[in-house]
Structures are given as C-alpha cells and as structure tokens.
Amino acid sequence: MSSCEESFWRMIALTGQAMRSFADKRLRGYDLTVEQLQLLKQLAVDNGLTQSILCRISDKSPANITRILDRLEKKRRIVRRPNPEDRRSSLVFLTAEGERLRAEVINLFEGLRAELVQGIPDDRQQVAIGVLRAITENISKMADKKFK
Description:
By secondary structure, this protein is mostly helical. It has helices at about 5-30, 35-45, 50-60, 60-75, 95-115, 120-145, and strands at about 50, 80, 90-95. The longest helix has 26 residues, at about 5-30.
C-alpha cells in the first residue's frame, strides 16, 4: 500500500473516530447515545414500526435493538404498543418528549454541521462526497459478491 493510500484510509478512520467522539460528548448532556438518536430520527419519519423492522433499518441485532428501546422507553422517549395485526410483536412510537428531544438535538447538530465544513468550498465538499459514495458502492458490490 502506498503512503498516499495509507494516509487516505488513516484520515477516513481518524475523521470517523473524531466525529463519533464529538457526537457522543454532545449527546451526553441530553442523556442520549448516537444509536438512540438514530432510532428517534427513524421513528420521526416512520412512527409505529415493529422492532424487527427497526433491526433491519438500523442493521442492529434484535438483542441490541431491545436494549436501546428499553432505555428509551424508561426515559419516556418512546412507547411500545401491541401490534393489532400480530399479537407477538409490538409497535414502537415516539412520545412527545422523544420528538421534542429529537428536534432539539437535530437543530444543534445542523448548526454544528455548518461549522465542520467552514472554509471548505462547495466544490471540494462535492468531490469528497463523490469519493466516499464510490467507496460505499464498492463495498456494497464486494459484499454482494462475497456472500452470494
């Protein structure tokens, strides 16, 4: 691997770690994790999903989703209700408190997002987006080939 490639992959890893650490620190004040926020965002779009659908959407195991939902329910940010179409499952709904918190945190991150790219011209941002999208597509193609 050339030093340019190594530096490229290292910067992707370091940037991901820095973003995750930054998000974790900001969310701590809201008693929220990145995973919990992702579920709140999904429920704001599609309220009343089953846990199995949330597993698929979030690419998390059923045990992991159950744990995250248990914590959100304990904090009164979501509520589970029986599924009228399948009594073995429940539907997950965002509460008013969950929606209020989601909106507040999303507004905070929208403001921070602008600061993160401050001084980077739009054309350079678009190049970076294109490169990352191409890498993601390549990963997807490789995964499809390998697991068929």
